[in-house]
Prior knowledge:
Shape: elongated
Low-confidence stretches: 1-59, 537-552
Mean pLDDT: 81
Distance between the termini: 33 Å
Helix content: under 10%
Structural class: mainly beta
Amino acid sequence: MQHILKARIVRATIRSLAKAFGVAITASALLLMGCTAFATSASATVPVIPLQFSAGPSGAGYSYDIQIVAPDEVTPEGMGTATDDVGGSCASDAWVDHGTDGSSGFVYTVQCAISTAEPAGTTVSVGYAGTDYTAVPNQTTISGGLTLTATTPAGSAGSYTSIVMATLLVANSDAAPVDQVDVELQDGAAQCLTPNLGTPLPDGLYTSYSAECVLTTGLPFQGAAIGFVTGSDYVSNVASFSRQVTLGGTFSPSLNQYEMNVLVPVGGAAPTGTATVTDTDGDTCNSSVWTDEGFDSFSSERYEATCSITGAETVGANVSATYVGNHSFGQSNVFDIMSLALTGSPVTSASGNTYLVTLDQIEPTPSHAAFVEDQNGNSCTPSVWTPTGSDGSGGNLFTAPCTITSPESGGTVVFATYGQVGSNQLTVAAAAATSLSLSGTPTASVSGNSFSITLDAPTDVMPLGFAHVVDTAPGSCTASSWTDDGADGHGGELFGTSCSISTAEVAGETVIATYVGNDYTGPTTNVLTVSAAPSGGGGGGSSGGGSSTGGTTSPSLQAPLVVTSTSGRIGSTIALTTSGGSGTGVTSFTVTNGTGKGCAVSGDTLRATSSGTCVVTATKSGDPVYSSVSSAATVVTLALPSRPPRVTVVFASTKNSLSSRARTSLLALSKELIPGASVTVTGYANGRAPLARARARVVARYLLKRVAIHVLIKVSTRSRTGRSTLETTSQ
């Protein structure tokens, strides 16, 4: 379990000792397992400075964090080491650069774990082995563990207090601790420090030392708290407790699913009671099905139950949860129901669209910004709220505009969020195309004709739809491989594509084209008429190796046609290619499922939804000289893609909102994942399990909006860097 290194205590201790020794502190501080030595060049004289440590169980023994605050931004070259007196040791030189310490130093940390048992009373020496810094080894002792108990917050004179009892177990043969215990609410709302641990009491193989402190807040809900020993003579776990239900979920007037969490000390009975959610509209839901969410990384097991209120909940309604059963958990935190609406008239545009977010809440002022995002990861943040009056039922209305400046195409879904509240969705509408033109010189032919289609669009956004060409036979073809042919001369953009009707067309037939897509709408094209085939001339002579009968020249055979693209990867499109064939005809492809599923062709692009094989046949249409030809049915093998590398996204201190850089990384990852992939998301927050979990969940939600994958969420409270990591475990 991670012990917490408090920078403010470190700096204060260094300053006070510097004053006592009468020296200027310019050397690096080596923070090791609760003990620190200053380190500088090999010739320097350095005092021994006991400071806090960072250590926690890892397997049978403990994992140790070693931190160096170096005077220069130069990564340490030596090894951080930990050695105990029962034969265990570890070392590592995998230093991580955490940047400046906020003063004049640079922070580097390394972890190593002793995998053998370290019972209470074990002495551990920690140090640094290298030539770039010197350090005096220091020692600490393994304790028997820290526990916390607390009362449910009681109100008096507008404040609420909870009395916390901290107890540290020490091996009977070891000296009494001279430490205090720092207790903090995990949301940072309150903190208290016990007196020095005292009142020794026999406890079997141990002696217990206890002390109390009082947590005080202005709210009846204090939630989960953690406690840790502030001194350096004993190594201990970070202890945790919660005397109340923690309520989470979504809080909007529509369907709401609620999450109730409780902490039970390790070894304690799992909850079997009923958690009930109630709002002030009189709606309720409850659950007695508890899921063990695992160890909270401190000293408790976290359990979760869920339920949904299906009726509409009015803005301003209060929601809270209670527990009745085999534990005495107090009432939960209270949430207000809010409403978030997204409005706008988005259309296909190269410069994006403007949106308006409307917040309806009971509070007089919004506490933070909303966030608007489309399904492609383009976003904007409307941060300036304008009050617009009452909602007519006790709530307050606020509006905030923002503009997504990236291109948006018709059919794109856009939504907004405000904390845990989500808005309605908008869909980008199609823009009206100026015209759609069909060109070509179709003549009567047994193998059809080729056509070109030009879309004149009002904006420079590449079409996502397809052109559909059809004659009165009816024969048809489609094309979706568009090229940008430049400006149209009056503010728009021209896009072109082509396709071939491969069935016979006779003189007098008419041909038209339409555009099918969500991004543009437009008129049907002009009409082309198939003309009569030119006379064979000479009363039935041959041409290009063909033969003539009754004055009509028959087309020649093409060279054999072969599909040459025979492999690819799931999750990526495969460009289909051929060799052989003759003449100027257009090549098209058809596909059927082999051992794979979801095989489909669009133009000359193949995709599938599972690994395996697809069976592709190519056809090259005829022209005035050659008849059409088809390839043999060809097996194309599609393999699973390689697993994406590990992705890390970093959060600002105490925050769980995604930065634009984080969104860019996650969007890139979503494009590498295939549906059904499995990803483990681990959230990190130093000593704060709820924050770590929130960071993991916001990352998971972002991915799940873009690709249908399986996500496993994990939590770690043993990192000083606020981040989430994503490991793709199967693809």
